[in-house]
Amino acid sequence: MAPPLQDDIYELVREPINTSLLASHVRAAEDGATVTFDGYVRNQSHNRPTLYLDYEAYESMALAKMREIGAQLHEKYRVHRVAMVHRLGRLEIGETSVFIAVSAAHRAAAFDACRFAIDTLKRTVPIWKKEYFEDGAVWADGELPPAPAATRRAKPAS
Amino acid sequence: MLLALPIRAGYNSYVASVSQTVRVKVLFFGRLKEVAGRSEDALEISEAATIEQLFALYAERHPELAKFRSSLVASCNEEFAAWGTPLHSGDEVAFLPPVSGG
Q: Which residues of B touch A58 (CB under 8 A)?
């Protein structure tokens, strides 16, 4: 059964993310709840004042992985629509870097799915951020995605 | 053996029959891009070489790369891949540091 992804949105953008538009996109008459996650740039990292962040991605793979997460949301939870957008390039303090909106008939599915989506994105989607400070820049500590141990994985037949 | 005396074969076909290579595209991201001094490369590597051997080739050219080996994952054609994955012609291999999106 193919997951109903056609009404979903998965995007990498270089402009500011229109969060209210995405939140309203997932909203439909048959739904009763939308949960959104708005991730934005904090003004400090480990107590060092941050100037700005710069995000880069393995864009084609990142989009494929974001769609994979979306497919998992439809399989695991009773969700209706998903919007998942990550911004790349230079972001200033307070600007949204990632936005996820999930609609469902009931709140529990929407909460659970949104939490799963951002946690999985942060662990598996090939996106990196560099943090710029007054006295230099560092690549942020990240999470190592789980990789298959031995054999080449077959492409999922989706 | 048939291959022992390729009298009629041209030079190229003879070479191909003993030493087959595959052409792969290689991508570096995040701090690896800075260490390798490039984001993208294309090279010929012997057929049946693995992703591990491909990385070792770059680590020879850029010795600083070696210390990142234990803290990165590889992908092949946009899927996370085991280090022992054998390479085929046209494969796109990427070396990915710990991800930090969000």
A: 27, 29, 75, 78, 94, 96
